[in-house]
Amino acid sequence: MTRCVGVVAVPGGDRWPGFAAAADRAGVRARCIPWPVVVAGPPPAGVLDGVDLLRVDSPAEDPLLGEHLCGRRRDAGEVLGAGPWVAGVGRAVRRLAGTGLPCTPAPGDLAVLFDKAACSARLAAAGVPVAPALPPVHHWAGLLDAMAGAGWHRVFVKPRFGSSGVGVIALSVWRGRFRAVAHFDVDRAPAGVRLVNRRRPLVLSAEADIAAAVDALAPEGLHVERWVPKLGLDGGPVDIRVVCVAGRATHAAVRRGAGPLTNFQAGARRLDLDEARRALGAAFTAAIDAAERVAAAFPRCLQVGVDVGPLPDRRRVVVFEANAFGDHLLDEVDLHGRRRTTWDAQAAAIAGGWVPAAGPVAA
Amino acid sequence: MTINENLRVFAGLPVVDYRPDAGLREAASNAWALRREWDDPPLVRTLDAFVADPRAPQVTAVVVGMFTDDYSHSSQAVIDHLTSHAARLPSLRALFLGDMTFEECEISWIVHGDVTQLLEGFPLLEELGVRGGGDVGVRPVEHARLRRLTFETGGMPEGVVRAVCASRLPALEHLELWLGTPDYGGDVSVADLAPILAGDLFPSLRHLGLRDAENADEVAAAVARSAVVSRLTSLDLSLGTLSDEGGRALLASPAVLGLRHLDLHHHYLSVPMMAELVSTGVDVDLGDPQPPEDENRYVAVSE
Fold it and tell me: For residue A165, which of A119, A121, A131, A197 has the smallest C-alpha distance?
């Protein structure tokens, strides 16, 4: 039976053509269901005819969707507003999945993947090594109290909802000294505080400035994790983005940050995979294993992008994030040296009959 | 620049992380790293296993990395443990204390105990390196065998230099001090360095490093005039704020021009000055140039 995948995507972005080409190569039919259509209401008649699987791809490629999703324009670089945006995406996907078609990611899983606190809890329950988190904090003073109570000097303060890396503050507190590294500007306008992403790091050492940034993020929910030091290679800390498809790791990228944040938007550089693999030693295998355990915790997702941090001992790892749309790696070569993209791996899985797992899944 | 990677090589040996379950295979061929990850038991537990290993007496080199997750704990417990078990490490010749990247701990936040105890406890030690000088206990000491001594800090307290100058280290060939910036506790003046620069303190000295100096031009001028330079084969003034002013002082010194190697990497020298230095024929490292026209000049490692 020839599969037919309905891909919810931004038609003018990179992801839809990338997946479409891979589907074509794999003999899978694919149809683009534009995000604005999905957001506007129930799918119009005929849009889903013949589709046997819905594959939701990232809405982030279209910044104008913000207005539809959360009732206000939200520019691509904005940090705030992720909560309403995520809720809007969730509503749209739930409505689509309500048509009865299998859907990846499943709406419940999408909600967890966009919620760092829920995701961390699910992974911990599944035995995946994750950074420990503080109980919920709602403002700067509460954050300091919680850190002191836990005996932690260094944490990553993350917006609870939204995709990884955006709005994260790497915070060190000790002996009355403060240091925060972030990749956003704090713009204090009369209409209110805006936080806008930037590539170059913003380093703050005045408590008042750091408190203002934290208090600007806090109303949307914070997830604060222990800063687990990562191995340094080639001049900076590294992490590994592993993409798993149908439960198996297919692609990996090793990223070296110029500072504590190792995502690409923060200007992290990709290291040569073969060299990095050698330098990482046993930690690389451990990262692959950990990523596959994360994928096993999301059996209703065709793919998941996992951010794994190797520890300085080159042996152990900690999982930092699981990403719903972390498959956009632009890689032509997979982990085994074969020429194929993450989309090829997904299309192959679909051609081979992949469907989201049935039955109850941990919340 | 910050310190971004753990040591891969120490005392000429590859650094291998010690794990109790793996033991000390090829004990003398590796530099063994003892470090604590975020969820490990306290480092002294690892140290217990390390010194109890049947091959510990063959170990020649040790690197102590992250030793605590509570920054208010100094390295004193580690220092005490090593010195009280010195009889189990009769072959130890090289020790590095504080191998932490910026990810693990800012250099200025590393707190050490009394590191002089290590020299007293290991009279056969030939190399000692210490990273972190915000709080470090150093007392004058006599040590017959020490050949290499390095203190890496973002701001060196004057007391460290004073204690070094009051020490007898007849075998010392390599002395390296990272002077840093006053913002992070650095208060070493050129006057404090005078005993070292006078040239009589350490008769075996062949390599002097006065690195990461915010007052690099002053230091360069003092060194260029000093008696010690004519005894050295190499001089290291890298990582600091060296500008053309310091460059001119170096060029004016016949003793500097007689050096085999001059390390000036991370500097604020102009291109013409760099060309002049290269044309002297001295093997000079001019890597990592910083913009000379910058109003503010920064040392490479401070926080």
Answer: A197
* pTM score: 0.83
Q: Which of B209, B227, B223 is nearest to B266 (CA)?
A: B209
User: Rounded to 10 degrees, what is the CA torsion of A108, A111, A117, A123?
Assistant: 50
Taking the CA atoms of B22, B23, B27 and B32 in sequence, report the sign of the dihedral they define. positive
Which ipTM was obtained for this model?
A: 0.71
Residue with tokens 């109850």: A360
- Residue A286 is encoded by which pair of tokens? 């451990």
Residue B21 neighbours by CB under 8 Å, 6+ apart: none
B 56-85 → A contacts, CB under 8 A: 65-66, 69-72
B103 vs A260: CB contact, 8 Å cut-off? yes
Distances in whole angstroms, Cα of residue A77 to Cα of each of A15, A182, B23, B204: 19, 14, 50, 60
The answer to whether the CB atoms of A237 and B103 lie below 8 A apart is: yes
User: What is the amino acid identity at position B272?
Assistant: P
- The Cα–Cα gap between B142 and B157 comes to 21
Cβ contact B135:B115 at 8 Å: no
pLDDT digit string, tens, across residues B217-272:
999 999 999 999 999 999 999 999 999 999 999 999 999 999 999 999 999 999 99
Closest CA in chain B for residue A130: B39
Q: What is the distance in angstroms between the Cα of B72 and the nearest Cα belonging to chain A?
A: 8
User: Phi, psi at residue A344, to the nearest 5°?
Assistant: -60, -45
Is residue B127 a contact partner of residue B94, using CB atoms and an 8 Å limit? yes
Residue B133, token pair as written in the block = 């000088």
